[in-house]
Design goal:
The complex is a heterodimer.
Chain A lengths: L2 H17 L1 H21 L7 E7 L4 E3 L2 E3 L1 H8 L5 E5 L3 H9 L5 E5 L3 H9 L10 E4 L4 H22 L19 H32 L1 H6 L5 H31 L7 H23 L5 H18 L14 H4 L3 H15 L3 H27 L3
Parallel strand pairs in A: 1-4, 1-5
Antiparallel strand pairs in A: 2-3, 5-6
Helix pairs in contact in A: 1-9, 2-7, 2-9, 3-6, 7-9, 7-10, 7-11, 7-13, 9-10, 9-14, 10-13, 10-14, 13-14
Chain B lengths: L1 E12 L2 E12 L3 E5 L6 H8 L7 E6 L2 E2 L9 E4 L11 H11 L4 H14 L15 H13 L5 E5 L7 H16 L3 E6 L10 E6 L2 E6 L1 H8 L4 H13 L1
Parallel strand pairs in B: 3-8, 3-9, 6-7, 7-8
Antiparallel strand pairs in B: 1-2, 1-4, 4-5, 9-10
Helix pairs in contact in B: 2-3, 2-4, 6-7
Chain lengths: 376, 240
């Protein structure tokens, strides 16, 4: 291995990227675009869901006057999530769900306050309930409706001084003030580097093969390992710069917090980039034309998208599918970046992810070199 | 003295014999033209000699060193059939890159670049992206890249394919110029008329050499006026 020649290759790849404005735009703008689009789309906030309240609650006479528990619950419903309309009769309210005008109807029966208060004071064995009619055709919307309703009930119970036999006491071990973007940015950093590095090396290398430059390189003193090393140097630097860019914008625009050592997170991203450029070179060995490289894109993106845990937790995968995520390098990088940036973990805690990435790098660099050495 | 010596060289792709016992000797300092129709095995021969392909059997030496051997790489220049340049880089960046691969330092690269750009008459285009050059200019840059490290043996694979007549003439002037500096050149072409520029030519057919000699001598022996007719003469004779 001659470092001078590896550096010459590295510099050449840099120049190629730098001279091409479109590629530069892809490298810099695409990650930010991905962060903004995915960040906003997947933030999980569902708003302005139209629901109907049919309140037939007659209330209860108390020494403090007429009390309506139903009113308390309704006023505690989250006005951001729900867009509430009051309707007098249940039949026309239900018709609105059937017509697709509303997602749910909350129906408070006449005895709601009365029975609830008496039952709380153990003066009756009767029970009452709120009837919820809900369009479950969109599970995300239905979930957020139920969540909003449960929240309102909980709040009403505590305000009314009612007692539940069990109370929940939540202490955040990690991520006390973390919002969605805090969670998302470490993941998208690794994800973007995975996708772009693999694609860029794949396309660049297919170019080397089709244009004949690779053949010409073979006739020079340059060795296969030096080609791979040169590409690795460039793309680890480019990957780190992309991560730096994403994090900077994440912090300035989305107010992302970082708990741990950023340098450790960047090291993880750089390692991932080395794995991915080797993967790109390896994949280029099975393609003969640019068009074939394009056919590979779904096979690069989909596993990263579905199996790396970047958008959905791995727990959301069916158990038989989960082991596959161990075969997808970005899984480790995403896990490590999140642990470092959200939990503030150090090398002593994320070393296993790093060892996995180093192992992937070793295997892929070796295979990429072998694939270049193969001669007709 | 031989710059290239090939004995019974065989190269098979599956069952197809691209080289079928090729014997060839190229003397130091000569321009040797390997002639033949498409598919005769000319390019395969060059690719085996430059280390791009593995031989199946037989022997070959370049500059006295049996191939394959990476040590030869430093001493040979190869200009592939395709332009094989980094079109996203400038002329200068291409030359600089190839110079570095051969271990040249910055000063050496700049000196060589100056000479070469003058030689191929592209001094004004030094900082232009290769992508913006015409086909003929790209060919000239490709030649310059193969010469950056002052190779002793130059392999040129169909350097004049798709090149206009005017440029072809100047290419042969370049080659004569290089020969005068003591560089050995092995050149393939299927333009028979060009071969008269060579010191010696070899006719290739089906992976073998069917005739060899100085162009004039070949014409005389075949009793034809053109090398093309001479090739047909030998091809028919070889077929009997």
């Amino acid at each position: 291995m001659n470092i001078g020649r590896a550096l010459a290759v590295s510099r050449r790849v840099f120049m190629d990227l730098k001279n091409d404005k479109r590629t530069m735009a892809l490298i810099t703008i695409a990650p930010l675009f991905a962060m903004a689009i995915f960040g906003l789309a997947f933030s999980g906030e569902i708003k302005d869901v139209h629901v109907i309240v049919v309140n037939e609650d007659l209330g209860m006479q108390t020494p403090m006057g007429q009390v309506y528990l139903s009113e308390a619950v309704i006023s505690n419903l989250d006005p951001d999530t729900l867009d509430i309309t009051a309707v007098d009769n249940l039949t026309s309210a239900l018709a609105m769900i059937e017509d697709g005008e509303a997602w749910a109807v909350f129906h408070f029966p006449a005895n709601f306050t009365n029975v609830t208060v008496l039952a709380q004071n153990q003066l009756t064995d009767a029970r009452t309930s709120v009837n919820i009619y809900i369009d479950m055709s969109n599970i995300n919307v239905a979930d957020s409706i139920m969540q909003a309703f449960n929240g309102a009930v909980q709040q009403t119970i505590s305000e009314s001084g009612f007692e539940l036999p069990v109370s929940m006491n939540k202490t955040a071990v990690y991520g006390q003030n973390a919002d969605f973007m805090d969670f998302f940015v470490p993941g998208i950093m690794a994800f973007v580097v995975y996708i772009l590095t693999t694609l860029l090396t794949l396309i660049t290398f297919v170019g080397e093969r089709t244009s004949g430059t690779l053949a010409r390189l073979t006739s020079t003193p340059l060795r296969e390992s030096e080609i791979v090393a040169g590409y690795a140097i460039t793309f680890s630097i480019v990957g780190t710069l992309q991560a730096l860019l994403l994090l900077t914008v994440g912090m300035l625009v989305f107010g992302v917090n970082v708990e741990g050592n950023v340098v450790l997170a960047f090291t993880v991203v750089a390692l991932l980039a080395i794995v991915c450029q080797a993967l790109g070179i390896l994949l280029s060995a099975v393609t003969h034309r640019e068009a074939q490289a394009i056919q590979l894109i779904p096979f690069i993106i989909m596993p990263g998208f579905l199996l790396s845990g970047v958008f959905w937790p791995l727990e959301a995968l069916p158990s038989w599918l989960r082991p596959l995520s161990y075969l997808v390098p970005p899984s480790y990088a995403i896990d490590a970046c999140r642990s470092v940036m959200l939990r503030g973990w150090g090398l002593d805690m994320v070393w296993m992810d790093i060892v996995a990435l180093i192992a992937f790098a070793g295997v892929f660099l070796f295979l990429a070199t072998i694939s270049l050495k193969r001669r007709g | 003295m031989h710059a290239i010596k090939v004995e019974k060289l065989e190269k098979k792709f599956g069952e197809f014999r691209a080289l079928d016992g090729l014997d060839l000797e190229v003397r130091k300092g000569e321009v040797y033209g390997l002639l033949g129709p498409n598919g005769a095995g000319k390019t395969t021969a060059i690719k085996v000699l430059t280390g791009l392909l593995k031989k199946t059997s037989g022997n070959a030496e370049v500059l006295g060193i049996p191939i394959p051997n990476k040590d030869i790489a430093q001493r040979i220049g190869y200009m592939p059939q395709e332009t094989a340049l980094y079109v996203g880089l400038t002329v200068h960046q291409n030359l600089e890159f190839f110079g570095k691969l051969f271990g040249l330092d910055r000063a050496e690269i700049l000196t060589r670049e100056k000479e070469l750009l003058k030689f191929i008459d592209l001094e004004k285009w030094r900082d232009e992206l290769v992508a913006n050059l015409s086909g003929g200019m790209k060919h000239r840059v490709s030649l310059a890249c193969a010469l950056i490290h002052q190779p002793e043996v130059l392999f040129l694979d169909e350097p004049t394919v798709g090149v206009d007549p005017e440029l072809r003439v100047s290419f042969w002037n370049y080659f004569a110029n290089l020969k005068s500096k003591g560089i050995t050149i092995l050149i393939t072409t299927h333009y028979m008329d060009e071969a008269s520029h060579c010191d010696r030519v070899g006719f290739m057919r089906s992976g073998k050499l069917i005739a060899e000699g100085e162009p004039q001598a070949i014409l005389k022996e075949a009793g034809t006026k053109s090398l093309e007719d001479a090739f047909l003469f030998y091809a028919r004779r070889g077929g009997q």
